[in-house]
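Hi everyone, sorry if this is the wrong subforum. Our group has a chain we'd like a structural model of before ordering constructs, and none of us has done structure prediction before. Sequence below.
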Amino acid sequence: MNIIKSVWVSLGKRSTLKKIIFILVLIAPLLLYFIQFRHCDISNDPSDWADFGSYIGGVYTLLVTFLAIYLTRHLEKKDVEWKKTKIAVGELYEQINNIDCRNVDLRSVNKLLRMVNRYQLYIPTDVYNNLINLRDDYVVAKTSPESFDIKKEQQIKDRLKRLYDA
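Answer:
Right subforum, don't worry. Here is the predicted structure as tokens:
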């Protein structure tokens, strides 16, 4: 039942058509069985029930196997994406730590910008925008270090830490 719930949650982010197809795939084997044997009465013979159980077990084992493969691939893909995000966040955090706001080295700032652009797909949009703004702040701090907002830098570092630890 947990597999079906997991697939349903995954389908929740998808279209209604996919949900309908999912439900039809689950119901179709039972419908086909009952349509085929609709003229028969409910049996008292245990062997008839065993045959029905074999049919249901065979069909739903195949369906559950396909669902398990789908979920495994889906979760594996999410795990790979999360690992890429974690690497990106870690590298961005380290690069920010390498920049001294009182004595800004523009090569380090440009490296930060290249990293931000390279990892744009793996970080949230608000973090991306904040990092771009931080890069601009570093450039301004090159000429006037006293105008640099250390709190803003710390907020970005804290956000990156939270992303990394999540």
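For your construct planning: Residues 2-80 form one domain. The chain is about 80% helix and 0% strand.
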